[in-house]
Design goal:
single chain, 435 residues, mainly alpha, globular
Length: 435
């Protein structure tokens, strides 16, 4: 039984690492894809936008489906979809085929993090659960650095189609999922209430309007507000398992953590967008060297995340959050004041941000289940992951919009300093939950 649990943890970590790597992998190859597919930069950006839309919406959709379909089946379906998308993308010679392949990849990959967290919280004993949630947080930073490095190496060596072929290796996880993931539903019993298709539509409307509103046209954010109002009215409906149950937001601790996590993810993914620009513009560094730097930094961050789990036993989560948000602020301050003068200081700033992201992910992953009622665990984790992915899409989207206003990267860095000050205040201010 002990070995079976360990194999389960390894399998969950591997698919999360695969999912995060896949999300980052193609960002390095966009310029080459633009030339080879003979399309505009605007058209190729939809490779990223469509992936972001699907993976953000898909994370909470899989969380809801896990109450109707066994989580093992959903994860296997996710792996098969990601593999199918990889094969379609690899065999396609045209833009539409590549776009479809990327969308199908996202449809599969969006299941990985949300379902892995539900499985860890539902089936693993406390000690193993905290280890797994720590590794999940570490894999988020490790996968981003590894994805950037592999994207650069594979694109340079065999061309961007090899990225699809590389991700098809995720199919190997099917064996681990089949043998080691327990057969069960979120909440342990299958839900018989009707599926909330109206709630699904309103949430889809929110995700699309929010991401496109930030990235393309601010007026679409009006539609985001409208969709939230519709979701609020719809939450009064009886007789269905609500797609978004607003009662999870009654806990102040839960709300505080998801907002801190949103900012943490936004700042981290923004750095993956801004750091290469800074390194290339100022220091003329190659993409592969940037990948090596980010991969090395992500390994250091991953190792420190393992130490954070130990530190939780003698330092409170609140103090640790304050420490690492402060470290993140120092990282951005180094980028603002010293990044134009030294590549070493730029790298140090990114290292601090990476370490903070990984540590905060671990702390919040462990803390968030304690703020959710047991019967609403899949709903709460689904909402938590929704906010994480919204943050991941918000970071680079708002950065690109700010760069349109000013080519000075410090303008974008300062924006995230303001957000992190808000996060710092949220981590200090505590109130008893109204649960």
């Amino acid at each position: 039984m002990k070995n079976r649990t360990n194999y389960l943890i390894v399998t969950l970590c591997f698919i999360i690492l695969s999912g995060v790597t896949n999300a980052i992998l193609f960002n390095v190859a966009l310029e080459d894809m633009t030339k080879d597919l003979n399309v505009t930069s605007s058209a190729i950006s939809w490779i990223v936008i469509s992936y972001t839309l699907i993976i953000t919406f898909g994370s909470i959709t899989y969380s809801k489906l896990s109450s109707y379909i066994q989580m093992k089946k959903l994860l296997i379906i996710g792996v098969l979809l990601l593999t199918l998308g990889s094969v379609i993308g690899y065999l396609s010679n045209g833009y539409i085929g590549v776009l479809i392949g990327r969308i199908i990849q996202a449809m599969g990959g969006s299941s990985f993090i949300a379902l892995s967290m539900i499985i860890a919280n539902q089936y693993l004993p406390l000690a193993k659960r905290n280890v797994t949630l720590t590794l999940i947080g570490g894999c988020l930073s490790l996968g981003s650095g590894f994805g950037f490095l592999m994207g650069g190496i594979l694109t340079h060596t065999w061309g961007w189609p090899s990225l699809f072929l590389f991700m098809s290796l995720t199919l190997l996880t099917v064996f681990g999922l089949y043998y080691f993931v327990p057969s069960g539903y979120a909440g342990k019993e299958k839900v018989t209430k009707p599926f909330d298709f109206s709630g699904l539509f309103y949430l889809f409307l929110f995700v699309i309007s929010f991401i496109l509103g930030v990235k393309l046209n601010g007026y679409l954010l009006i539609l985001s507000v409208l969709s939230i109002l519709l979701l609020g009215l719809h939450s009064k409906k009886q007789g269905v398992l609500l797609f978004i149950d607003f009662s999870v937001f009654q806990s102040y601790s839960f709300n505080r953590l998801i907002l801190v996590s949103f900012i943490n993810n936004a700042a981290m993914v923004a750095i993956l967008f801004l750091f290469p620009l800074q390194a290339i513009r100022t220091f003329h560094v190659s993409a592969i060297l940037i990948g090596l730097i980010l991969c090395s930094i992500s390994i250091v961050a991953f190792l420190i995340s393992l130490l954070v789990r130990k530190a939780i036993h003698f330092i409170s989560n609140k103090k640790l959050m304050i420490i690492f948000i402060g470290l993140q602020l120092i990282g951005f301050s180094l980028l603002i004041f010293l990044s134009l003068h030294s590549m070493i200081m730029t790298t140090l700033g990114v290292l601090f941000i990476y370490i903070s992201f990984s540590a905060l992910s671990v702390i919040i992953n462990i803390e968030i289940p304690h703020t959710i009622e047991k019967e609403k665990m899949s709903m709460g984790i689904g909402v938590y992951n929704l906010f994480n992915f919204l943050g991941m899409s918000f970071g680079p989207s708002i950065s690109s919009r700010l760069l349109e206003m000013s080519s000075n990267l410090n303008f974008s860095f300062f924006f995230f300093v303001v957000l992190l000050i808000l996060s710092f205040m949220l981590s200090i201010v505590e109130r008893k939950s109204t649960e």
